[in-house]
Design brief:
Blueprint: E1 23-30, H1 33-43, H2 47-50, H3 52-56, H4 67-81, E2 93-99, E3 108-120, E4 127-137, E5 143-154
């Protein structure tokens, strides 16, 4: 697989810059024990995410990040590197959230993004829809989570056909 690069910076990127079939990779982000626990305290207070000692005797034999935390880390890389800061017009949703492997303290996560589909909106001619596959990848090259977001992006020149 050949990785792609955008020819325009994130603050000049529009729908036309998202090319179907392109693949990008960003990161890594380091995952720390304290952030795993803090996220769990606020949003997913299960012992496997909160208490390293209790988690050691649990099904994962150690502390793991909440799947929602993992998706949040992936989202951070998505917004910081991929999603246009000038043309993003929100998202109608996501499909197919999957968690494949636990994320543990000390892991490093990268984000691989594949553009699956692009199409201009029929009802709103000033924008298009980009459907992507996001895959969180750990330091061993294993996919730990995936999700398929849909994003509306403004066209650079909505008058041009």
């Amino acid at each position: 697989m050949k990785l792609s690069t955008f020819s325009t910076p994130i603050n000049e990127r529009y729908f036309e810059d998202y090319i179907e079939g392109s693949v990008f990779e960003y990161g890594p982000l380091d995952v720390g024990e304290s952030e795993i626990i803090e996220f769990a305290r606020q949003f997913d207070p299960q012992m496997m995410h909160l208490d390293p000692q209790a988690a050691a005797s649990g099904p994962f034999q150690g502390l793991i990040a909440s799947g929602w935390h993992t998706l949040g880390l992936m989202m951070r890389l998505f917004v910081d590197n991929y999603l246009s800061s000038v043309a993003s017009r929100a998202s109608p949703g996501v499909d197919e959230i999957r968690w494949f492997k636990p994320v543990r303290p000390g892991d490093q996560l990268r984000l691989r993004i594949s553009i699956l589909e692009t199409r201009r909106s029929r009802s709103k001619p000033d924008r298009g829809l980009v459907i992507s596959l996001l895959e969180g990848i750990n330091q061993d090259g294993e996919v730990v989570a995936s999700v398929k977001p849909m994003n509306f992006l403004a066209l650079r020149d909505p008058v041009a056909q």
